[in-house]
Amino acid sequence: MNKESKANHSIHPIIDGRWSPRAYSSNPIEKEKLQSIFEAGRWAPSAFNEQPWRFNLGQKGDETYNKILETLVPWNQQWAGEAPVLVLNCAKKTHARNGKPNVTFKYDLGQAVALMCVEAVNQGLISHQMSGFDPEKAAQLLEIPDDYQAVSVTAFGYYGDVKALPQDMAETEIKARERVATETFVFSIFGQASDLI
Ligand SMILES: Cc1cc2nc3c(=O)[nH]c(=O)nc-3n(C[C@H](O)[C@H](O)[C@H](O)COP(=O)(O)O)c2cc1C
User: Fold this and answer.
1) In this structure, which residue's CA is closest to atom 7 in ligand 1?
2) I want to staple 86 with a disulfide (CB 3.0 to 4.6 A). Which of 58, 72, 90, 99 is the partner?
3) 104 lines ligand 1 (CB under 6 A)
């Protein structure tokens, strides 16, 4: 299903084409496409180029997939359990260079995940990020070291059948995507809309 953004200004069709569906097909993702997704994350920028992101890749049927699925809140389990791939997104909390806290570890991870989701569109795939999961349970089940934090989970796959979703989810799935107006977040002085907008 196509849910373009109806953007006010010209943006790249791949950015326009990204959205967060819940209706996943059971089709697996080809190995090369999955490799491209992680390659896109690899080329994300990061503070001091430390690349603090770490990913646990779960593919349907394997132990990692089942463990990631187990950490999701029941609402997310309902739909995400159909996706062929679940990725646990983690990052290193301290700098590799000096051991001090890395204040941008989640920021850097988010950039990698965003590029992975954009690359997914390029590969004809869909993605859906989730913070509705239990990070402590994830750390325990997937043996995440203390210096790393599990931050979110991403589902990847092919688009499926909206009719297979529970009714409340199916209704959300077909609703137009919404965003606040640009003047509410692009300022000259904070709180005053920029002349650009
Ligand atoms: C960090 C983050 C956490 C999210 N957590 C959840 C979640 O737990 N469950 C869910 O169904 N969607 C989740 N979403 C998806 C958002 O609800 C979705 O991106 C937002 O409504 C905008 O819709 P769009 O991506 O289709 O444009 C999350 C997205 C992000 C970036």
Assistant:
1) 130
2) 58
3) no
pLDDT of residue 5: 78
Q: How far is the CA of 184 from the centre of ligand 1 (A)?
A: 20
- How would CATH label the architecture of 30-160? 3-Layer(aba) Sandwich (3.40)
Query: Mean pLDDT throughout 97-107?
Result: 97
Which sequence spans correspond to the domains of the chain? Answer: 30-160
Phi-psi region of 195 (alpha: psi -120 to 50; beta: other; left: phi over 0): alpha
Q: Which of 153, 116, 147 is nearest to 135 (CA)?
A: 153
Ligand 1 atom 31, closest CA: 129
For residue 1, the model assigns a pLDDT of 78
* 191/35 Cα distance (integer angstroms): 42
Per-residue model confidence as pLDDT tens digits over 51-68 = 999 999 999 999 999 999
CB of residue 76 inside a 6 A radius of ligand 1: yes
Please choose from 107, 131, 178 the residue to mutate so as to test ligand 1's pocket, defined by most ligand atoms within 8 A of CB: 131
